[in-house]
Please model this.
Amino acid sequence: MILRVKGNINRYYIQTLSMIFFPGASFPEDEQPGPMVPELYLSLENSESGYRAVCDCSLDGASAHAEKELSLEGLDDERCRKLVVGDAVISALGDLMEYRPSWGILTGVRPSKVATEMLNRGISKTRTKKTLVSEYFVFPKKASLATEVAINEQAVLSRNSKNDFSLYISIPFCPSRCAYCSFVSYTSKRFLSLIPDYVDRVCVDLRRVMAEAKLLGLNLRTVYFGGGTPTILEPSQMRQILSVLNETLEGKIPDEFTYESGRPDTITEEKLKILRDFGVKRISVNPQTLCQDVLDGIGRHHTVEDFYRAYAMARDVGIEIINTDLIAGLPGDNFKKFSASVDGIIALNPENVTVHTFCVKRSAAINQEEGIYSMRGGDVGKCVDYSQIKLQQSGYIPYYMYRQKNTVGNFENVGFAKPGLEGKYNIYMMEEVHSILAVGAGAVSKFVRLPETSQDKPVIRRYFNSKYPYEYLDRENCDGLIEELRKFYKEYPL
Ligand code: SF4
Model:
């Protein structure tokens, strides 16, 4: 895509806005005009009371033009520039492509974060929704969703304190690779043979990290085993890690203890009983769809029956909170099948339901297929709307939400919960309100210092563990992580 920008505005911002209309576009400086090459010219200048943005765009002989002005009244300089430029670009590209994006100019920022900032400034719920619609061009139903999520998140966040932390343990192995997955997860026999060494190593690091957290005076709030597929571990390996964790907890029970299970084909009664006996309160059992032909098409090697069986076992064993994931927009799915999946899940009455929108990253096998990305998203918008309406009518509240690049139709991922049973780790991690100490390959620790006053910004530092299990095992210890952790809390004492 040809992009020319004049004035004090970040070029990257215009690129992300353009990609709403041209998913996957690139912006080489030397791009030449030609058929099917979109062009966009944007200029930003001062007006009498604020800024004026002019946008011209064209594609294959069709063109559109938009001019917008915005006063600085009540806005800081950067926000005023972004809003007026966003308005001009969305208007011009919207006319050219005859399409209005449901999240308006919100790109690269979580909509609920924008809503939270307004609510924290004392702006009412109604006014927050209206502002999202009028200034950010968000559709009213999405503005309501973002505001509801912000309010529900706050209820959980109000219980957070500055010396809290969460623990993340990464098990990046899966029994086979789903066709749409781009996650770094090991599935081959050779790599799966690393699991016993990997488990030993995680146990060593777990002890060290938890001992350091104790020395620093940190208070553990939630534990999260994530994947891959953590239930790929053998029962003895699960016992090994969970016993070490239990020792380090010294009798303290975290507010939330999640062990992601995910693939129903790895879940057995024995494993579920081990999880329950070691205090796991929350697991996920993820069908993604309740339609067998869709499941077959995405290369997930389990059946719908496997899901029902694993779900019933988890209930019988007495796991307190079960999350189920669905994905809207899977290849081969349609509104009829997806709405039946939503209804089927609601009938099971799980405590949490997470509805994702299909997103294919570059490395996924399925990415080779034509027509996966769709700006308008076909009937995926209808599917997403259906899930949100039906779940809320059935007593679930939306409590966390995020958006990813390259989702079909640019739609969102939303976590729903029965009130009071929200997945707290998800909120803490997303909102970056306390430190996350992460053990295992590919895991990222975040050290967080909350602002002292409303004028300050939080301090967030990240530490990346080695990405691949073999690299992780090659490193002798977790000295690097411990060192960074100490350094951070020395600089920012509790
Ligand atoms: S179970 Fe999840 S992490 Fe594993 S291959 Fe499938 S999508 Fe990827």
Residues 195-216 form the longest helix (22 residues). The chain has a mean pLDDT of 92.
